[in-house]
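Form 7-S
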Amino acid sequence: MANVADMLVLNLRQQIAAKLNVLPLKFFEQNKSGEILSRVTNDLDKITETLQTGLLKLIVAAGTIIGSITVMIYYNVFLTVIFLIFMAISILITRAVAGKNLKYAALRQDSIGELTGIVEEYYTGRNIIKAYNREQERQH
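Output:
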């Protein structure tokens, strides 16, 4: 899984680099370079993490669930039906919580991108700030 994930991420990085090289200058005027860099880096890290651990766990979990339900049906169909009803309720609750979590994760990602953009601009512009003697103003 790690090899497949690394190859996929390498391919994605190459596609992103190619896309960034053909974007018009207007795109870079409207978006901070640090924010773009942060978003690309963090998103690719999440994809790698998901592929390396999440996909394997998903396959194992699916096999475990199928096997468990098969054994449960073999021993007692009625209890299996009750279990499946509670599982459906649990899945609905989980979807509701996951939806809110996804919204807050997107807000967090936007904040991280904005912060990285500011840091990157200050870092790359530090020589200009020093040249115009504006260090005190930039510390706030």
